[in-house]
């Protein structure tokens, strides 16, 4: 959790120009850092990325497929988007916040379906192993699209849930952490739901590719 807090601070997402001036309560800035740190701590990484530590204990991320390593979180673009969401939503009334998050969820669902629809499955002729192709970018990968695309979608949805939790928002204002130990179960449930009914995800990938 500590390293995530430091990482979020290093991105400079908590402050906008002028907010570093005297008179701006620091808690209004730090609650964004806490919210983002809580969110990424409880969310899975997109395949095939994994978190590691260097000799000094600093977290970095590795992609065993490409051999790439990075100090940046694989979902940094999503994290930046969530920073803006938090900044706006915490200042709204509950009814306005619920309406705004409902609109965001609808937009995210459309985006996720569109991204997922671009992928289709194929088989490597030499090995017979299944891989996946993007019909627009021509990108190919061995990882199932669900393992790559869903973590970002999951991160958005669970983060939105936090901003509808009044108890969490109160803790957020006090810089308290309310990490949900059941979040991992929620991720597994989302994955199982998509893969149920005869491997629905694989079926959808093939269908979208036609």
Automatic annotation (TrEMBL):
- One Pfam family, short name: WW
Q: Which domain of life is it from?
A: Eukaryota
Gene3D superfamilies per record: 2.20.70.10
What this protein is called in its record is: WW domain-containing protein
Q: Which residues form the WW domain?
A: 43-76, 119-147
> Where do transmembrane segments lie in this chain?
none
């Amino acid at each position: 959790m500590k390293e995530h807090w430091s990482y979020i601070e290093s991105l400079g997402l908590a402050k906008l120009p002028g907010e570093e001036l005297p008179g701006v309560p620091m808690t209004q800035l730090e609650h964004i850092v806490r919210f983002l740190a809580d969110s990424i701590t409880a969310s899975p990484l997109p395949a095939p990325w994994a978190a590691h530590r260097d000799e000094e204990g600093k977290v970095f991320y590795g992609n065993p497929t490409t051999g790439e390593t990075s100090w940046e979180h694989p979902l940094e673009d999503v994290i930046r988007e969530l920073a803006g969401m938090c900044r706006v939503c915490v200042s709204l009334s509950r009814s306005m916040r619920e309406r705004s998050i409902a609109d965001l969820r609808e937009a995210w669902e459309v985006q996720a379906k569109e991204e997922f629809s671009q992928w289709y499955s194929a088989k490597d002729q030499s090995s017979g192993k299944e891989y996946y192709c993007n019909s627009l970018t021509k990108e190919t990968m061995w990882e199932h699209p669900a393992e790559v695309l869903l973590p970002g979608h999951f991160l958005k949805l669970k983060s939105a849930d936090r901003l509808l939790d009044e108890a969490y928002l109160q803790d957020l204002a006090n810089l308290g952490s309310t990490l949900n130990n059941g979040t991992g179960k929620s991720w597994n449930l989302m994955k199982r739901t998509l893969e149920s009914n005869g491997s629905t995800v694989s079926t959808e990938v093939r269908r979208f590719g036609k």
